Amino acid sequence: MTHKFFPHTPEDLKAMLARCGENTLDDFYKDVPQELLFKGDYDLPNAMSELEVRRYFEELGSYNEVMTCFAGAGCYDHYSPAVINNIIERSEFLTSYTPYQAEISQGTLQYIFEYQSMMAELTGMEVSNASMYDGATATAEAMMMAIANAKKRNTVLVSSTLNPRVVEVVKTYAHFHGVNIVMIDEKDGVTCRADFEAKVACGDVAGVIVASPNYYGILEDYTGWADLCHDNKALLIMNCVASALGVIKTPAEWGADIAVGDGQSLGLPMNFGGPYVGFLCTSKKLIRKMPGRIVGATRDVDGKRTFVLTLQAREQHIRREKATSNICSNESLMALYVTIYLALMGKQGLREVNEMGYSGAHYLAEKLVETGKFALAFPDKPFLNEFALTTSLNIDALQDMCMSMGIQAGVKIADDKLLLCVTEARSKAEIDALIENVQYFIEKEEENQ
Amino acid sequence: MNNTYYGSLIFELSREGRRGYSLPANELKQYGMDALPAQLCREQAPGLPEVDELSVVRHYTNMSNNNFGVDTGFYPLGSCTMKYNPKINEEMCNLPAFTGLHPLQDPDTVQGALEVYYELQRSLATLAGMKEFTLNPFAGAHGELTGLMVMRSYHASRGDDKRTKVIVPDSAHGTNPASAAVCGLDVVVVKSRPDGTVDVDDLRPLLDDTIAGMMMTNPNTLGIFEHSIAEIAKLVHDCGGLMYYDGANLNPMLGKVRPGDIGFDIMHINLHKTFSTPHGGGGPGSGPVGVREGLEQFLPNPRVIRHDEDDSHYYTVENGVNSLGSISGFLGNFGVMMRAYTYILTLGKENVKNVGPLATLNANYVKESLKDSFELPIGGVCKHEFVFDGLKDKSTGVTTLDVAKRLLDFGFHAPTIYFPLLFHEALMIEPTENESRETLDAFIDVMHRIAKEAHDEPEMVKTAPHNTPVSRPDDAQAALKPIVTYRELKEENV
After folding, report:
1. Fold assignment, B101-352
2. Which has the least CB within 10 A, A134, A396, B324, B454?
């Protein structure tokens, strides 16, 4: 029984069992039918000491390879200031739970309030919730929010330029929630306006989901889209890359009703896919339709500024089977991560990050096109730090060769299309190394022919 | 915790021109962003604060001092399993060999990470008596939704589209009916007996060929083991439905009872409850979903598959054709999985067996020690938690809310209050296996003292807390006129 997680001495056990009127720990399970008790052996290793645990994970870690990353597609390798992890690990934040007792949870409540304020500034929207799981589920929740808002309408249009991983999750939720999803065609890397105009007018559309930047990194022009949505009683939902919102036209400026996306690009480690943080922002008008938790400012009985969980009547634990969302725990600690990131970077830092990504990406695109083996998949379409190239090269072989040099050369999105991303974390030397490897690969290919 | 309130918002510390970051010079600035068309750029920079590094550090450090965590003190929040979050978990989940991985890297370069995923799901399967788990769901509620999707996919695969209802006990967490509604299922409520367990006589007439399944926790929200579980499972199975196990109360079962052995087909586990990962102020959690043999084909995409070849093995990431679809962008909250797997390795097969019994001992010890001062509506042995229906002496006017607030003055977190809804003054206490007898005794002493105060000086309790960073907030005002951003707060001058 002796283990560092169990403080019970033999004397404790004896005294505590006596207080309970029992003789053994097994007596606490005498109400369980004996045939239901587990009497076997778990297929698990024996306990490891801390030294052994460290050795074990160090060995496992050696089977991974952390690479110079030129991949994006929903996860971005950004610089993360040293301050953040240090504060995140403070156990007053880390080991607390949902701030049910406001008097001893002002730390959590206040950072959520700051997070909501920052996300509202970034998206231009009036309000933000306390966070969602990730960008994909946040988009699915926005889809359900549009359906709940529309009452009788049951179709949501989704642009084909939205990240396919997000589309998959939206479709899964829609299938089980009974929502009809109709895709809007893609044309030359952007959402086809004519197809959108035709489909939005069908009379059953509750919402329209578009992306900015889109899956190919392109900044689409959504001039007039919100008006057309609203004329047809549909909400415009915009899925955004959070970091890009520091410089690109905001969902609010486009007239969107709901802004969603993943906050991972705001300095969160890539962490093999999670934890990240979804954001969902909307207008004050729609706040009571919004899923998830919201923190509001008020005063305590002594008149001191105090933060509390508010508008809980919207939430699933109150609405039960009438709920239109079931989220309760969200990604609070990752919202703190984003909050500290934005506090440190500020408006200027976020701009610099975007400038550096833009410069690096445009340099890389130009150099790869110069090899003669690549072309921009969608020429003349503006992009920020991510772009798609068309190539006649064997992408798998190219990526394998780069991988052997410790470089992740983008994400293959079609047999002839490669999606590449450059952030401020990539130095010019690293970009040049990728270019040289590609040139070397091309030379070898030509020698072989 | 300190009791000095530190109330500035980060925005109020902002001064134009200050900065809290450093970046290298842009070596490629000839490729300038000003080439972007103006109509695609935002007109004004976002209103983010401009603060120097030390001010940021001090701001959030002071804010953390206004918070209470498991590391601060006893946190008997019923149904939330606020167990100790081991520090080795944090060290492992921060290893750069894992945190630096992009989720779309070639499987060759992430074999270590995939092994963590695979081995954790395998460990959960042996602990829960299930065939296979997906670790993709992000939280308990997300796991419930995923599990119900598995249930619906199973019925759909048999061409049975009549099953549109799911049975949920009246004592269930609000999340159960909410998850069912989001999953497109209608909720049918089954009543509880006076002892809090499911009323089997009330269940029988509900069962027909429109029932997709039933959701249950066991022990239930009162901490009572559902001793009729075998009969309930048989009834539901006989009508063609599946049994769903809500893992919120799995902790007392660890080492003693496996959900898969007592009739459940699908379940979720909250890694942030039973497997010691930190609650983080409300996430990130992780809600793995396990299924019995025959249902694994419906689990969400993507899945991690192990391939054995001679004396070596290899992992791939694959999509199944019968899968319900995907419910996450990638493979779930990997960082949380690293922590949970570290916990399982640290406990080992010999110690994991003691988790449930010790959690149960601690709960019964507190219950037996306090039942003279607090109303215990359901006697007998409880499991990991139990519920009081307020103070025994109802004449004082002191409510459960008052008791909870007074506890804060003594350095304890409050129990869960006003849940479950079966009692008016519910006070739900869950101590977890990590708490020492001395800690429990200190809590018991304070609870007795509050009961005495309620009688001798009720105002002291009714106006509590007195020693916390802020006093009771005006919740009504917050809801009446919601102020949810700094921009609004400035306008309203709060």
Report:
1. Aspartate Aminotransferase; domain 2 (3.40.640)
2. A396
B107 vs B190: CA distance, rounded Å: 47
Indicate the SS3 state at residue A21: coil
- The tokens of A120 are what? 């509202």
Both structure tokens of B464: 């509590």
Tell which B residues from 119 to 138 touch A, by Cβ distance under 8 Å. Answer: 122-123, 126-127, 129, 138
- Determine the pLDDT at residue B101: 98
Q: How confident is the model at residue A135 (pLDDT cuts 50, 70, 90)?
A: very high
CATH number, domain A82-341: 3.40.640.10
Q: Which amino acid is at B453?
A: E
Least confident of A223-227, A237-241, A246-250, B416-420: B416-420
Look up residue A37 and give its DSSP letter: S
Q: Which pLDDT belongs to residue A448?
A: 86
On whether any CB of chain A is under 8 Å from the CB of B109, the answer is yes
On the question of a common fold for A68-77+347-448 and A82-341, the answer reads no
Give the distance, in angstroms, between the CA of residue B338 and the centroid of all CA atoms in the same chain. Answer: 17
Which 8-state DSSP code applies to residue B481? Answer: S
Tell me, yes or no, if A327 comes closer than 8 A to chain B by beta carbon. yes
C-alpha distance from residue B408 to each of A38, A204, B77 (Å): 39, 52, 13
Q: How far is residue A158's CA from residue A117's CA, in Å, rounded to a whole number?
A: 28
Task: Let me know: does A167 contact A74? Beta carbons within 8 Å.
Answer: no
Q: In B, residues 322-361, which contact A (CB 8 Å cutoff)?
A: 324-336, 338, 342, 344-354, 357-358, 360-361
The domain locations on chain A are 10-62, 68-77+347-448, 82-341
Q: pLDDT (tens digit, 9 = 90+) per residue, B269-287?
A: 999 999 999 999 999 999 9
- Pick from B80, B152, B181: which is nearest to A321 by CB? B181
Sequence ranges of the domains in chain B: 101-352, 355-468
Out of B32, B40, B472, closest to residue A221 by CB = B40
Q: Are A311 and A129 in contact (CB under 8 A)?
A: no
Please give, rounded to a whole number of angstroms, the shortest distance from the CA of B48 to a CA of chain A. 5
Query: What is the spatial distance between Cα A448 and Cα B14, in angstroms, rounded to a whole number?
Result: 61
Confidence of residue A294 (pLDDT cuts 50, 70, 90): very high
- Name the residue facing A300 among B255, B471, B485 (closest C-beta): B471
Rounded average pLDDT over B378-398: 95
Cα–Cα dist A135/A75, whole Å? 10
Q: Does A283 touch chain B (CB under 8 A)?
A: no
CA–CA separation, A276 and B331 (whole Å) = 11
pLDDT over 90 (residue A1): no
Average pLDDT of chain B to the nearest whole number:
96
Q: Is B144 within 8 Å of B179 (Cβ atoms)?
A: yes
ipTM of the complex: 0.97
CB distance B72–A20 less than 8 Å? no
Domain B355-468 CATH superfamily: Aspartate Aminotransferase, domain 1 (3.90.1150.10)
| pLDDT at residue number B492 | 86
Nearest to B256 among A37, A273, A359 (CB): A37
CATH topology for A68-77+347-448 is Aspartate Aminotransferase, domain 1 (3.90.1150)
Token pair for residue A101?
Answer: 């007792």
Say which residues have a Cβ less than 8 Å from residue A35's Cβ, sequence separation at least 6.
none
Question: How much is the average pLDDT of B407-426?
Answer: 94
Mean pLDDT across chain A, nearest whole number? 96
Cβ separation of B279 and A95 shorter than 8 Å?
yes
Given this model, what pLDDT does residue B1 score? Answer: 55
Q: Note if the pTM is more than 0.90.
A: yes
**pLDDT tens track for B200-250:** 999 999 999 999 999 999 999 899 999 999 999 999 999 999 999 999 999
pLDDT at B6: 66
